[in-house]
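Before a colleague's protein record goes any further, I have to sign it off. Alongside the sequence sits a line of tokens, each denoting a local backbone shape. I want your independent view on whether this chain really folds as the tokens say. Where you disagree with what is written, explain briefly why. This is what I was given:
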Amino acid sequence: MSTESQSDSDAPELAAPRDRGLWSNHDFTKFWVGETISLMGVQVTALALPLTAVLALNAGPEETGGLRFAQFVPFLFLSLLFGVWADRRRKRPLMIGANIVRCVLIGLVPLLAWMEALSMWSLYALAIGIGICTVLFDVCWMSYVPTLVDKKHLVSANGKVNSSFSVADLAGPGISGLIVQIFTAPWALIIDSFSYLVSVITLSSIRRPEPEPSPGAERHLGKEIREGIVFVTSNPFLRVIAAIGSAYNFCYMFIDGLFVLYCIKTLGFDPFTLGLTLSLSSVGGLLGSLAAGTFIKRYQYGRVYMVAVVIGYCGPLLVPLVTGPTWLAAVVIGGGFVFTRFGLSVANVVALSLRQAVTPQHLMARMTAGMRTLLSGLGTLGALAGGFVGASIGLREAIWVGAIASAAATLPLFFSIIPRLRKLPESPEEALEFATAQRTA
């Protein structure tokens, strides 16, 4: 894929960006709108793909856990490689290419179902392909946003993107559940396929030139991967975020690989009830995204993160705890997850902004790749483990194991320097000065 040839010298506005709010930053708005629409499709796929396995292919715990493993295993093996690649190239063309391929792969699911050629093995293969594109896109967009907005608008920009996740969480599962209820699971994926086309159009319309990556005297793949890993593991902020985040994601994916099967088989949900429950629970995520900026202004930055993490990581305890009629289970899980998603959403905005603030731009993609390898890569192993444990000891018992471990994942944060961080650092140098002062205090 070719890249643009615009250099920094041809883009003086990048050297001295104008002081303007996000609402007047039309290029960020284009990115934001396209990402919001594609995220809506992602949420449809997140529910429709496992429902396709459960309802159309009669999948059990090992198969549903394996499907989640297939979706996320590329994060374990490709994030670091893609991080180096993205640091060498402009991000926008890579993002456009990734979304074109995702559009095609997701569209193949209903096509194969129509041809009566869909199987678990074809779902595994398509899930891996979609996951590869998702790795590339995620590594790029988190590094691309800081080139679209000024540093002082970074928290606001991340909050808006995170609110898009929450809006997609709110509407996507309900829409998906309704479509699955009416048309069967594979056809709900058509929405996701078209959503990526919209993202391609909006990304292609962005006019702001992207800075040319520094060519460097020599390029060495292994050395550049190592630099990204060392930076994440040696930075006192990033290694804590990576440690607790990867532990939580392992537990989340452990539960998530079983959740659809648990709700359908154990709690008696139909697809629409399942989708509606997940949609209602996402109200908390939207509220958290909108409130994150206010909390940061009023309270200490690190304290906001700590409280949000505790709320979010303890929420999965509600899933195996609930018993009784289907309507009560739906209300308890949906209502309880409002608070869970609220905490996770605030924590995500705070953590992402902190990651970007403490990282030099030339390492941004490799930092993102290293974090994604730990956060999503280890989560992938959680999905595989959950499937085997669920098949061995039962769905509810396995979910209890994952939920208790999720709550325990908060402990390292209390012994770190992050809770003592009063505000978002202005630069990587300021962040290291703060860390050094805390160590010598």
Remarks:
- The radius of gyration is 21 Å.
- Residues 1-19 have pLDDT under 50 and may be disordered.
- Residues 10 and 387 are 53 Å apart (CA to CA).
